[in-house]
Amino acid sequence: MKRIFAFLICTVIFFSLQAQSEKATPEKPLNVLVFSKTSGFRHQSISSGLKMFSELASAENWNLTATENPRLFTMDFLVNFDVVVFLNPTQDVLSDNQQKAFETFMKTGKGFVGIHASADCEYDWDWYGKLNGAYFLTHPPAQKGTVIFEDHNHPAMKAFEGMDSYTTVDEWYSFKSNPRENVHVLARLDENTIKKSDNDKWKMDDHPLIWWQEFEGIRSFYSVFGHTHEAFQDPKIQAHFAGAVNWAGKR
């Protein structure tokens, strides 16, 4: 009986120590590339976005590289990364060869996170439009608007758990085509909360703003947040992007 009791105690101690060891073992670092080159409109909030990602890298155990140099888009360079973030790039930012290298690299099962103006980028590259989910069309003036949450079942949405909606100031993009048929929509715009507008060209009726998809073996995520400095300083939006990058990196 004493032997059995001693065995049980040792077993409990073993599994307890094993659990503590597993908990103490940090996750493998994610190698994250943030690309923010602009050839069109340049968002001043890029600097705040880079600051946010630098702080998240420390908290989330990422190895972060930020660049605006498209010449680095070669297989030799890209192979070092798990996730590529397009932080407010605009217009034509990659050459044909750079596009080919990026597409080939991403199809090896990597992750992509598009932020705000990633939809205002590479209009002549059909594959990129599919990767991002949609292309930008127009927007009303930046203003306070309400985002309605459709699905909290995604790591990027944990910051908004228990909330049906979130009201904040941003630039509420509309898109050339509605992505809903091809992506999993997480949130949409309540168009009735938009008060300042010169016309109705921005209205979509069904107006997705945040979505994810698995595209050609790639985990792809897009969020409209990111026009203002304040967006990247908002703790909920910071957690939103942390969850997006970790998900894209298959954590």
Note down, in words, how this protein is organized:
There is one protein chain. The chain has 251 residues and is of the alpha/beta class. The chain has a single domain (30-248), classed as Class I glutamine amidotransferase (GATase) domain (Rossmann fold, 3-Layer(aba) Sandwich). It contains 7 helices and 11 strands. The protein has helices at 2-24, 46-60, 75-78, 96-106, 126-132, 229-233, 235-248; strands spanning 30-35, 62-67, 83-87, 111-115, 136-138, 143-149, 165-170, 174-175, 184-190, 208-215, 218-223. The chain is globular, with a radius of gyration of 21 Å.
> Segments where pLDDT lies below 50 for 5+ residues?
4-17, 19-25
Portion of residues in helices?
25-40%
| Number of E-state strands | 11
Task: Give the name of the CATH superfamily.
Answer: Class I glutamine amidotransferase (GATase) domain
CATH hierarchy class name? Alpha Beta
Instruction: Tell me the Rg in angstroms.
Output: 21 Å
| Total domain units | 1
- Helix and strand content put the structural class at alpha/beta
- Mean pLDDT across the residues is 92
CATH architecture verdict: 3-Layer(aba) Sandwich
Shape: globular
Order of secondary-structure elements: HEHEHEHEHEEEEEEEHH
